[in-house]
Amino acid sequence: MIVLEQLKLLVNLALADGDMTSQERNYIINIGKAHGFPESSVETLFYSSHDTVIAKELSPDQKFNYLFNLVQLMKLDERLYENEIKFCANTAAKLGYKPEVMFDLLLKVTPTEMSSTEKEALRHTASKYLQ
User: Fold this and answer.
1) Which of 12, 23, 71, 125, CA to CA, is 20 to 30 A from 89?
2) What is the pTM of this model?
3) What CA–CA distance (Å, rounded) separates 26 from 44?
4) DSSP code, position 97
């Protein structure tokens, strides 16, 4: 259920600027497939927006993964929209992060695949913002 809610958040972010690119679609599909969701199941999520639900029982690693995936998705089309940034900042707050976490992540997260060392450094940085 936690992954499904994360996929819904990603869909909402992709739809926030009114245009879901093929890169964004593929990114969301790949996350779903990596967690055992068939592509067809993930695609059904693209046809509407969803309620923003954040599970209460998320571990710090799961919280970071939610936030990392949101920021990476936001940067895929190489354009940052104010409504996307606000969406991510609001989600970060719901995950228990201080709003300043977004500054660090926006500067350091890249839209391309990042090494495990880079992600671990970001995880460590983000953990300082958990309340």
Assistant:
1) 23
2) 0.89
3) 13
4) B
Torsion angle, alpha carbons of 101, 72, 57, 91, to 10: 60
DSSP letters for 49-88: -------TT--HHHHHHHHHHHHHHHHHTS---HHHHHHH
CATH assignment, 2-127: 1.10.3680
119: exposed, middle or buried (C-beta count within 10 Å: 0-12, 13-18, 19+)?
middle
The residue count of the chain comes to: 131
* Amino acid sitting at position 59: S
Quick one: which of 3, 17, 2 has its CA closest to 88?
A: 17
| Predicted local distance difference test score (pLDDT) of residue 1 | 64
What are the residue boundaries of the structural domains of the chain, listed by start?
Answer: 2-127
